[in-house]
Amino acid sequence: MVEAMAKAKKINKVSKELVLEAYTLMCNAKALTEIYEANSDVCAKYVHATSRGHEVIQIACGLQLKPQDFVFPYYRDDSILLSIGMTPFELMLQVLAKRNDPFSGGRTYYSHPSLNDDDKPKIPHQSSATGMQAIPATGVAMGIQYKEKLGLTKDFKGDNPVVVCSLGDASITEGEVSEAFQMAVLKKMPIIYLIQDNEWDISAFSDEVRAQDATHFAKGFKGMGIKTIDGTDFSESYETFNEVLGIVRKERRPFIIHAKVPLLNHHTSGVRMEWYRDDLEDAKKRDPFPKMIKELLDLGVSEKVLQKIEETAKKIVQKDYDLALKEEDPRPEDLTTYHFAPTPITKEEGMRVPEGKDKTVMVDSALFAIRELMEKHPECLLYGQDVGARIGGVFREAATLAQQFGDYRVFNTPIQEAFIVGSTVGMSAVGLKPIVEVQFADYIWPGLNQLFTEVSRSYYLSNGKWPVSMILRVPIGAYGSGGPYHSSSVESVVTQIRGVKVAYPSTGADLKGLMKAAYYDPNPVVIFEHKGLYWSKIKGTEGAMTIEPDEDYVIPFGKARTVIAADHDKIERGESAVIITYGRGVYWSLGAAKAFPGQIEIIDLRTLNPIDTEAMYNATRKHNKVMLVTEESIENSFTLGLAARIQKNCFEDLDAPIEVIGSVDTPAIPLNSILEETLLPNENKIAEGLTLLLNY
Ligand SMILES: Cc1ncc(C[n+]2csc(CCOP(=O)(O)OP(=O)(O)O)c2C)c(N)n1
Ligand SMILES: [Mg+2]
Predict the structure, then answer these.
(1) Percent of the chain at pLDDT exceeding 90
(2) Residue 486: active-site member
(3) Whole-prediction pTM value?
(4) CATH number for the domain harbouring residue 602
(5) What angle do CA 535, 541, 547 make, to 5 degrees?
(6) Domain residues for 456?
């Protein structure tokens, strides 16, 4: 009796039409798997995975998402894509890496979607790195929450947007997933983590790689809703999703849906099931396909109708495949499109030195820039460790901001650099502009994965759909015995991450102008702020203190500044040289130049990506002698790359080998002040180099 009632209720909620719709999608998905396999000589040219075995839970999810929702499908989620309205043809364009692949223009693998269509749920870019999408996805939920708090969102009549982050069972053992879960429960975010548990981690089975499944793991995250379901049962999957979506749309709190599923296709086209699967017979017994057929037969649909649907799916998929094969490949000239989104800041504008103002220390120039931005733009918010009201940053670089703007706009995060950096992908996707911080350059490393894997490539790999607009402030540099973990320089590593702009200003005015430019730039920007320059406490760095520029002052990226010029007659007589540098290098160089009056031009690059190559080459042509100064050790450095560029472009103009001055090469900066001093460049080392250079 109870069973009969339960069944009646089920059928009531999940109508025959709905199950038929799901079955049709499932037939399409199955036909895709089969056609890729039958044509593996063509389709496996580029690695791909399909949803076979996981279809039901994916369809139950995809069918219920709305255009205001965000979804992060992973590489096995082609059934989610079909069920939000993508066609087999469109998916095939990606398996064949064709030019019109709607997600990436042939840049990334099958079922690595990114979509920003009005009529479908939004899909920001996510990488192939397992589990890493949890942070960008949670960033979207954080952004939605922020917009709701600030009243920046539309009225969705109760159907408030929800984020679905899809994950494989093995991916959730990645450390970064914990950071995402922590933030989701801490802030009660509107996100559903869909975990598809097939118990396989490529060839490693669950008992080898985890001590507990997702439900037990999630218990460590207080406030996380948890549901375990049979992901092969459509009614159960659909109803659970329906219920959880309803709760999350209303109550704004996170959930895990843990769906048990069999994996019935290869891990990927490159890692084939026959090599290692010893459970296939059992797995096939859990195949959702016959189960779905049985459900439909029970609902009174005839076998003939079901066969017809399957045949039609096969025909559509075959036709789409034939069409997709004929599609154009990307053209060579497509390679470099969507590197950076165009920025509106292309020239220096506004008043750099307004009258009647006193000089400001550099740290305050940044603070004032952010204050002005926050006053003007509700989309601007700031988070990181210790930036909240109590101290406003360990350098007081965010002092008073939380008091002025509220602790939902300026807030402390846990010690989670990956989250701090990677969440900006999601915040930016909902139209916000996060300014975030890592406390010291030495602690950028835990965030570097997100910067490289998710942030830097989003615009390029989504073929221009999802630029990540964010600013990452990074206090950097050796100063006052900071020791091995509060002193390091990291610009060579960060500038090597393409797709990220990098600034390294040496004065307060430049920091303010570049901070403003970074804000209006739609691309990710890292700003290195030398902590030795923050208060100009180091002798010789007083120049970092400047009159604070006006509110509308901006400096375009890629424009160097002439710090001092050489005398015309010295240049004419061949008695001059140029020092090209940045950051604290400017002040060591200024100190050294005093011994060579009128002979030295100093160029401060101000931004390290893009670089003002014109300024470098013009100065080389003018002086014919070049010195490069960096705080990094020289081995394998960014600065050596500059030397290579100069000699390649200005070989005929060089009268001496390019001199490069940097720190002594050690694995770390030692604590003891004598050792620190010995390691760093200084005026004398530069002056010695200049003597050699000028006398060459
Ligand atoms: C960070 C990272 N490490 C390793 C890999 C290689 N890799 C790709 S899929 C995979 C297994 C993932 O298993 P699971 O999350 O359970 O998803 P499933 O493939 O079973 O659906 C691994 C290790 C990767 N893509 N990213
Ligand atoms: Mg798995």
Answers:
(1) 97
(2) yes
(3) 0.96
(4) 3.40.50.920
(5) 65
(6) 359-547
